[in-house]
Design brief:
alpha+beta; Aminopeptidase; Nonspecific Lipid-transfer Protein, Chain A; 3 domains
Length: about 450
């Protein structure tokens, strides 16, 4: 037993092994049970079985942490770390994604998640991951140094059958969908990369990951399991890709990536895709017995589909966000220095020689520029306590709010409007912040 830490009351934290799979699934299905109905969450269990299978390209069973009660041998809390590579405007960065964070009701409020996150964060640091990101319940992960700072795309919907274009009498479909095959993986990779180009932040995938998602991630209860489909002409010419779930749930069938080659027209291809996807979804298993009523779309806010058919893609609930943690902000800024230099070169601040000091109240950072190049980003702390004093810095960002403009989630003006203590020492600084940290659109399809 690989015990990493001993806790009070006979509890220990250790790495999981494949022998823990059934107990781990049982823990999760009960920890995530609906508190109102008591319904168990079997879909997390299916995801876990695929992660524990040893087939995942970036995950191994020992990447799960479990808390075990030695008095009963029961697993009572867990989480895991899914390592992956993201890209920020062309600059690669390693990311750790904590996931499946759950504790049995009777073991909550003992700090078990905090203890596990300390270990996960150390694992992530040792792997060279400069940031961690997680999607999770409101507020909770702020306790561990995370801030809502990156777009989690607001979904849209197309009602079935009301908003599905009908094929005109006498016409034949010009395009159809088919399940991807092994020899399609390089084409999928090419189109996926094209799709990511619309996003400030995106997740890198290689052919091993596409192979896993399409052929190896096959537990019937995995709520993330999806198909990569090919869009083809009637003659079999490859046109595009569609990534969509393998089931219908709550009357909805969801898609997360839709892309076509630039020589084809979105308004010509999309009606065929809508009809073909509806036909596929109508033949799928209904997880909760609710028949198909809508197609769900989780695409970039600037996706062409939304622009050419806004009347068929209505929002169905507001957006949410990724929690992000950046433990070493100066090192992170230094890593993405080419972005700042590119933005300066395209602005009225080209050739900038100056020091920008950012006050985080409990710390801070200074960015040193010479002739438009960022010479250094280093830790800095204010020597004055009030706005307007010389040691206060050029701009101030309370708590972790700086992450919101770092990842393009908010503009500088939006942030200042939300937080009275988010300040700048003048309009020149405001203008420079706008150049260095513009608001951006992102769509991250994470490795799961």
């Amino acid at each position: 037993m690989d015990i990493l830490k001993t806790l009070p009351d006979g509890l220990v934290i250790r790495r999981a092994t494949t022998d823990d799979t059934d107990a781990l699934v049982d823990l999760q299905t009960h920890a995530f049970a609906n508190p109102d109905t008591g319904e168990l969450d079997h879909y997390l269990g299916g995801w876990t079985r695929d992660l524990m299978s040893g087939k995942h390209p970036t995950f191994r069973p020992e990447d799960f942490l479990v808390v075990q009660d030695t008095k009963t041998s029961a697993l009572v809390s867990c989480t895991c770390l899914i390592s992956q590579n993201w890209v920020i405007d062309g600059i690669p960065i390693r990311v750790g994604r904590p996931e499946i964070v759950g504790t049995l009701q009777e073991y909550r409020r003992r700090g078990l998640v905090r203890e596990q996150f300390q270990i996960l964060h150390e694992w992530s640091r040792a792997r060279g991951e400069m940031m961690q990101a997680i999607t999770g319940i409101p507020y909770y992960y702020r306790q561990f140094g995370y801030e809502f700072a990156l777009d989690l795309v607001p979904p849209r919907q197309t009602f079935v059958p009301q908003q599905i274009p009908e094929l005109k009498e006498g016409e034949q479909e010009k395009f159809h969908l088919r399940r991807a095959e092994q020899n399609d993986l390089s084409f999928i990779a090419e189109l996926y990369k094209q799709s990511c180009a619309r996003s400030y932040v995106s997740c890198t995938r290689d052919e091993r990951m596409f192979e896993y998602e399409n052929f190896l991630e096959n537990n019937s209860l995995n709520g993330h399991a999806s198909w990569w489909d090919l869009i083809e002409t009637a003659e079999g010419e490859r046109v595009g890709i569609l990534y969509h779930r393998r089931y219908v749930y709550q009357g909805r069938h969801s898609s997360h990536c839709y892309e076509i080659l630039p020589q084809f027209a979105w308004d010509e291809v999309t009606p065929c895709v809508l009809r073909a996807l509806t036909q596929q979804a109508n033949a799928m298993e209904l997880e909760d017995k609710q028949p198909l009523a809508k197609l769900g779309w989780f695409l970039q806010a600037n996706h062409p589909f939304y622009e050419i058919m806004p009347e068929r893609t209505a929002p169905f609930y507001g957006g949410y966000a990724w929690y992000v943690r950046v433990p070493d902000v100066p090192a992170f800024l230094q890593h993405i220095a080419p972005l700042f230099e590119k933005r300066l070169a395209a602005s009225n601040f080209r050739g900038l020689t100056d020091t920008l000091r950012l006050n985080f109240y409990r710390g801070g950072v200074e960015m040193i520029f010479e002739n438009g190049k960022m010479k250094a980003a280093q830790a800095w702390r204010a020597t004055a306590n009030d706005f307007g004093q010389s040691g206060f810095g050029n701009a101030a960002f309370p708590e972790l709010t700086f992450l919101k403009i770092l990842f393009g989630y908010c503009s500088r003006a939006e942030l200042q409007a939300m937080f009275p203590d988010c300040l700048a020492d003048g309009e020149k600084t405001n203008a420079l912040l706008d150049v260095l940290f513009p608001k951006q659109i992102s769509h991250v399809m994470p490795i799961h």
